[in-house]
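Chapter review: from sequence to fold.
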Amino acid sequence: MIAALEAGEYARAKPLLNALEWHLAPLALIAGAAPGRLWVDDPAAPASALAQLGYRFYLTGRADNAPFNEGVRRLFTDEIYPQAAGRGELSIYYADDAWADVIGQMLRDKYPMPSRRRYLEARAPRADWLPLLPAGLTLHAVDAALLRRTDLSNLDDLRAEMMSETPAVEFFLATRFGVCLAAAGELAGWCLSEYNCGDRCEVGIETVRAYRRRGVGTALAGALLAEAKARGISRVGWHSYADNVASVATARKAGFADLGAYPVYFTWFDEVANLAVNGNLHFRQGDYRTALPWFERAFAAGDAPAWAYLHAAAAQGALGETTAALAHLHQAVERGFRDAAYVRSLPQLAQLHGAPEWQAILAALEAEDR
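The token string follows.
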């Protein structure tokens, strides 16, 4: 059994959602500070719950609740996936390791992938963040006046970030805050509060590629923490994929303490993309024989991204399948892959370097760069 609660009933599930202490989103939902939906097994006495905020889902309570789990499976199959056509990524967070196998069964036809994320929380915010501002960049509040400017590029990317965790820009302006750094004619990066609830919020941060490795992220995080303090917010959280070394390092430089890792499942709504990403997960782990069938399934299912053909070529190169590797490398280029430096950097393709076809492919890629 699965039942949708009305907003006024959300507090009934709070004891269950309290188990997701590192995740502010479901707590903000219960408090009415963020839009979303909430389902339970029994509205009168919930033992299992599923919260949805955008395409982030949170499972908590009893994992061995077969009727509830079947209801969740049907919800994803009959409603969530059909409504999300063309969307990007779905992620599922959970409070107990017992949910791991259950999620695999719930989405068994969608091939979800396990991953790990880290949670950091501001414990010793830097007081000296102002001198960290890179030369030539100016600090601005993310507000309506900034969004009305016509002399700055990357504003559309900022708007997209504002709406990634809220239903509209106007909702963000009314309930959240943020800071950004601007150079002459463009935004260099921004840092936004997320899921503001009581004395807590979380952080969303982005540095434009051309401004990375210049201290922009650390300065932005410092500025946001100063603004949070001024607004009476004492707990600020930062989430990052566990292997995103740069993100974790930026958080630590800004005064965040690493409190640990937690599990997550993710999948892509687009079938072809999800098959390719499954292949890429195994490719990154060095499991080339497992990666290849996933890539081949992606190619058979539709218009796979160019990088999938490249990594299929690299997997075959690592396995000594030179002819097949060259064929997939050609297909990657035909589908628009243009990063010659990255192709050269892949150690799995080293044995192809002496082949005439390799030289021709690299010459074509480098000609595109010029």
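Two observations follow directly from the output. The mean pLDDT is 94. The radius of gyration is 23 Å.
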